[in-house]
Amino acid sequence: MSINIVKDSADARLDLVFVPGLKVDQGNWTSAENSIFWPEKLLPAQIPKARILAFEYDDDPTIDAFWNKRDFISRNSDDLVNSLLDERRAEKAERPVIFVAHCLGGLVVENALMRASKNEKKRQLVTCAAGLLLLGTPHYQPGTLSEAKKYFQLAQEDVPSDSELQSLSKHVLAIPQAFAEFIQANPINVESFYEGSPVAINNQEIEIVEESVAKFPGDSPDPTMLKGNHHQMSRFESEKDKDFKNVSRVLVDWVGDLPEPEEKGTTNNISNASFAGSTNYGYQLGQNTGNQTGFTFGGR
Length: 300
Prior knowledge:
- This protein has one domain: Alpha/Beta hydrolase fold, catalytic domain (Rossmann fold), CATH 3.40.50.
- Helices cover 30% and strands 16% of the residues.
- It is built from ten helices and nine strands.
- Strands 1-3-2-4-5-6-9 form a seven-stranded mixed β-sheet, with helices on both faces. Strands 7-8 form a two-stranded antiparallel sheet.
- Helix 3 packs across helix 4 and helix 4 crosses helix 8 (170-185).
- The protein is globular.
């Protein structure tokens, strides 16, 4: 596993980390028509003071990395955390960090944050986490687990029976509910998007992650639809792309809500930051109050 520096800046005040999911065709985050790698070509103009990082797996994750009786998701999650800790040393360790994850990579990030919170030496990464933007990340529950068969179709794998799928889905099922509970004590901005167009698979038109699957368990905000299909929703051709505008707007808003870095010699404790003025309905450090099931929403 590795972290690649896509773009750095001498005055960078936060880290933006891109985490891909299941790879079944072309390069991650790269458009089909003109091969635009948008974290490098489009996003810096929107967020000039961000260091942009891209996480890469040693081997492209397959279906077996997620649907397996063994917990391979946690292996990838731990590698993500450890790679980030290596990259965020000294003063960089205190920077806010925002994650952008596509597909099953969202489960890797959610699991990574939960696991890091249990380790004293890794907990600072969770404290600095200011946002998680999810593009087509499934949050299966027992009633929607049959939807996971679409991933096997997407990967051109044999589709398991209901009983086989249940036995392989222990970890995929556990993460969404656990993360919904985790977020109550570790409030982070979360914004979820789902695809608005189907993928053509063996003469079928299939939406891999529909709205009901992209939604978190409990009383959570509804996810937002993008017009692209499961692949296209993470790949943009230009800054004029409507989907890019919808995604980048969320990131720009989050960055705008971050507190200004403190002068050298002082301690910038992100855990006490207030994200006032936000217009999104995600989670914000220091602003969440009230009783609810699954998520905690801040009063406005």
